[in-house]
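cache lookup: miss for this entity combination. No prior model stored, computing from scratch. Input as submitted by user K.M.:
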Amino acid sequence: MNKELYNYILSIADNCLILGQRLGELCGHGPTLETDIALTNISLDLFGQVRSYYQYAAKLVDDKTTEDDIAFLRNEREYVNALLVEQPNTDFAFIMGRQFLFDAFHLMLLSELQKSHDVTLAAIASKSIKEVSYHYRFSSDWVRRLGDGTPESKERMQAAINDLWAYTEELFYQTASEKLLIEKGIAVDLSQLKASYYQNITDVLEESTLTIPDSKWFKKGGKEGIHSEHMGYILSDMQFMQRAYPNMKW
Amino acid sequence: MSEENIKDLEKTFEARIARDEKIEPKDWMPEKYRQTHIRQISQHAHSEIVGMLPEGNWITRAPSLRRKVALLAKVQDEAGHGLYLYSACETLGITRNELYDQLHSGKAKYSSIFNYPTISWADIGAIGWLVDGAAIINQVPLCNTSFGPYARAMVRVCKEESFHQRQGYEIMLKLCQGTAEQKEMAQDALNRWWWPSLMMFGPTDAESTHTEQSMKWKLKRKTNDELRQQFIDQTVPQAEILGISVPDPELKWNKERGHYDFGPIDWDEFWQVVKGHGPCNKERMKARVDAWENGEWVRDAAMAYAEKQKLKKLNKAV
């Protein structure tokens, strides 16, 4: 098996899986019917992308492995999503802040991934980027609305950004497998995207009349499989059926 | 307007309905027609929105990625139905906020079936198969109802519901073809959802207060009992294909009637749930009210932002 490629696919797909799962928790509880539909839609898009990635990754393992084995039957240390996407749905400002900080990254990543020498990854990226452009438009618009809305919404949005800021740098963390694949023209060199990412989110936050956090402390670990305490609960929900009723077809 | 004029208008109105013409929002209509439609359409919209909760309960725990996306898409469809039913209702001169207030204060009702809990994955199959199956039987006639916006909304709703029903049945089929444990899960879900599904058609004709007037306005084309019978006749053979049994010892094919005979429905349970004392009435209402109240600052922010943008545009123009 091409272990580096397998790991690389998961490092992209696990973000979509866990964020999709977090958004799935919100279904039926949104502040308006329209936002409820939009958030469900984003979750649905992310799970659709996850399926494409995992189906590809499963083929790299062997003929028997399925997308569901990869999604549901790994242990916590084997999930390699960034810490940002597992952060809880504290309030609508956190939900939009998390989405915005991820979407801005996701959009840049896919834009580069379209040029990958791996044609399957390039194809998944080309399909997904249309969806993610919409996600970014939606989340950045809400950051503007909440940032430049009422005093309460501004305070909440600022609190969310202050808190979530610490999780942004990890998005650009490169694992050993990733570095090997960059040389082969398969993986995206994230170090090249970092400056424009921060420039882009700074522009939107300033436009939203928000203050850019000046903290230089960043948290990481997720991409190496060391997660926050939230992750165990996310997985116990997500894996419940597969663990309680093993080896069955649904 | 004189009483005589109103009588003339009413006559013309009734004649239009008799000719199967659609009544549109700006047309004259009797006040009772307007109120009845607000009541029924909003009740329908509320049911879609509250109905998202028991199913949404399983999104994070769906057993496979395929089931997860199908369930997400389904619940999203229900939200979409709610959205255009609320819009259809608004054409009758009431706002969505007023309709929400009626729901949250308990003044407006929603389908009682959603006050039952979803405690296993098979419940998601059973809801699709039975609850959406019953809903389709109730709703297909509404595609030809007299009020235009409602009739048109129902065409789309019914198409999607029919897809949901097949999706639910497929979940059941997979369970019934699976292990003994899975089949048991399916049987248990049928046991719990069967009677509440029969109650979805409402009280027996003798007890139903709205039937006669609703028939006249084509809000109803068949009585509650006729629809219930149709559902039973259609569903029993489907349960036979699954190889699970309908939990009614009195269920028997009646050759002479050409229908299934069935046992008595527990109307005490029906009224208990309708009156707010079912297994999840309080939880469902709390979830809706919480979503609304916790979302207030978000809606306020959106309005404030829109105002600011409008001002900016105006200032630029000046």
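stored under new cache key. Chain A has one domain: 3-244.
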